[in-house]
Amino acid sequence: MTLEDFIADYTEVDDDGTMTVLQNSIAWVNTHIRDNLYNQRVFRDFGAAYFDGDFTCNFKVNFTSATSGKTVYGAIWALGNVVNDMTVLDLGDNLAVLAVKSSIDLWTLQLRIVENGVLRLDASATLSAGTDYYLAIIRDDDGGANGTGQMTVRICTVNYYGKAGAVLVDTLTLDCAAGEKNDFRYLYATNDYDAGASTVMTLTISDLSVNVTSTLYPIGGFIVPEPLADMLEAKEQFGFEECGGLLYAVCGIGPTASDHSKKVHAYDPVSDSWAEKTDAPIALQSPILRAVNGKLYLIGGYDSSTGTFCNKCYEYNPSLDSWTEKAPMPHSLEDMGSAVIDDEIWVFGGIYQSFPSHLINPYINVYNPATNQWRVPSISWATPRCLGDFCCSYDGKVYVVSSTDIMSGYSGNLKASTNVFRYDTILNTFTEVAPCVTAVCYKEVEEIDGLLYVISGVSQLTTYIGTDQVYDVALNMWKARQNLAYAARGVGVAKLDGSIYFCGGFNGSEQAYLYRMTPSGLGTSGGSGMITAATPPTSPARYSAFNRQLDQDRV
Q1: For 11-212, which CATH superfamily applies?
Q2: Domains 11-212 and 226-554 fall in the same CATH topology
Q3: pLDDT by position in tens, the chain (length 555)
Q4: b/e for 399-434, b at 16 or more Cβ within 10 A?
C-alpha cells in the first residue's frame, strides 16, 4: 500500500509548536494533546462519504512518555465528518477513533465509536513504552452482529497482522449499532482533546497507509452462478482439476454414498459436454488431484478395495489417456490439503488413522514430478488439518484455510476452526492471517487475481454451507459473499480462464450439478474484484431457470 504524505496532502495545526511533521511520520514531543489552550491536529479531507464501505488503515506507533501520574489521551487515528477537537467530535453524529491513553503511567489503546452522540469503546491490554506497535484497522461495512458494520484493530509487534513475523498482542472490536451505516470524510492522523488539563505526551506515528475498497464486495455484485451440463456421475469427495483446457473429475464417493468410484470424466467448457476417459487404477475417496506441466497427479485417499489409507501416486497423461504409477507418498493419507508451487505438489495434513480414533498427519509431503521424488520438510506445525482440500497457492505462498485440527469422529463434532495460515515454502514457516468468516470442512479453495474463494462445505457433518467466503490477500480481509446455487460438502472446485467451476457434492444424496462463476475484475492487488453476470448457459434444460433468476436479480 502507498504511504500517506503528511506534508503534501494533510493540514497541520500545531498551536504549541511541539509536533514535527515529516512526509511519512508525525512526532509529538511534550505535545499538549489534552489542553484547552492548544489545538493540535493533522488531518486530510478525502471528500464527502469517501470512507463509505470496507477499508483498512495500517500505521506504526511508538510511545515514549507522558505527564507522570496523570491521565493523558490523544487521538492517533480518527474518522469524522467535521473538523474540530476530539471533545467536540465525541458528542457528534458519527465518529471512529483510535486513542492512546496514559493513565498512572500505564499505556493502552482505545477503539471508540460515536453514533448519535452515544460513545462505546473497547480498550487494549497494557502496552509498553519504547516498542513499535503495528496497527491494522479494518472496517467490514456490512459485518458485525447488526450487519451495519464492524471495526477491528489488530495490535501487533514486529510486523502488521497477517504479515511475516507478526506477533499479535491484542484485538479491539466494536460493532456498529442497528440502523447505523456510517460514512466519513476526514481522516485524522493526530487530534487533541480539549479537556482542561495541562498534560503532555511524547510519541511517534509513522507509515500510515489507507485502502478503501467499497467496490470490492458490492451488494448484489456476485451474480447467479451459471448452470452447465450435469456431470456423468453424481459424486462427492473427488478430485477436480483443470489440465490442458479441460476439467477432470476423478474417483470419489458415488453415484451413491455406499459406492466408491474410479471413473474419470473430462468436461469441455467450449462444447459444454462431458466425455468418459480411462478409469483410474483404483477407486479412491478424498484423494489429491493436481496438474503439473500438462499431466494430472492422483495422490493418496481412502482405498475402498483394501479399506486402508493410500500412499499411491499416479500420473495421468491426457494426450495418451493413460495412467502410470509413480513413487509412493511417504505417508498414507486421505482428506489432505494441497497446492502447487514451482511445479511441485505440496501436501498438507490429512488423516492417517481412523479407528479407534482419528489422527491427523503433522507432516508436509512434497512431490517433484520431474524427478519422481518425495521429500518431507522439517516443520513444527502446531495445528495440522484435515477434511477437504483446504489449501490454495498465491504469489509463491500456500494458504491453509479453516478445516479441523481436532477430528473427533464423522458422527460427532467436526470442531472446524476459522484459523487461516500462510505457509512460506522457502522459509518453511507458518504465519497466521485473518480468520475466515465461517469455520468449514469438506470445501475447496481457489484463487483468482489475489482473491481466495472458499466454496461451500460443512460446519458440521450435515450442516451444509451455501455461501462462498472470499479473502482479499492484500487487505487481509474476509467476507461471506453470496448464496451459491446449492449447499453441499465434498464439492469439486477448479479454475479455468478466470472462472471458477464447482460441481458434485453431497447434501442428503450425491449431486451431479456443474456451475461456473466469473469474476470480471481483480482484487485489491490490481482491480475492483467485482463479479459480473455469467454468460447464459448452453444447457437448454436449465436455460429458462437461469434467465428467471437473472431477471429477479435485476429487480
Answers
A1: Exo-inulinase; domain 1 (2.60.120.560)
A2: no
A3: 689 999 999 999 998 899 999 999 999 998 888 777 788 899 999 888 888 888 889 999 999 998 887 888 888 999 988 888 777 776 666 778 888 888 877 899 999 888 877 888 899 989 999 999 999 998 887 778 887 888 999 999 999 887 778 899 999 999 888 776 678 899 999 988 876 667 888 999 999 998 875 433 332 334 468 899 999 999 999 999 999 999 999 999 998 878 899 999 999 999 999 999 999 999 999 999 999 999 999 999 998 778 889 999 999 999 999 999 999 999 999 999 999 999 999 999 999 876 666 788 889 999 999 999 999 987 767 678 888 889 999 999 999 999 988 766 555 567 888 999 999 999 999 998 989 888 999 999 999 888 899 999 988 777 888 878 888 888 788 877 666 888 999 999 999 998 999 999 999 999 999 999 886 543 333 333 333 223 333 333 333 333 333 333 322
A4: bbbbbbbebeeeeeebebbebbbbbebeeeebbbbb
| Nearest alpha carbon to residue 554 among 225, 223, 216, 218 | 223
Architecture of domain 226-554: 6 Propeller (2.120)
Distance, CA of 82 to CA of 95 (rounded, Å): 10
**Look-up: residue for cell 475484475?**
521
Domains in the chain: boundaries: 11-212, 226-554
Distances (CA, A) of 474 to 175, 435, 450, 523, 543: 23, 14, 7, 8, 37
Burial class (CB in 10 A: 0-12, 13-18, 19+), 514: buried
Alpha-carbon distances, residue 465 vs 265, 399, 533 (angstroms): 26, 20, 22
DSSP letter string, 314-338: EEEETTTTEEEEEPPPSS-BBS-EE
Rg (CA), the chain: 27
CA distance 45 to 11: 9
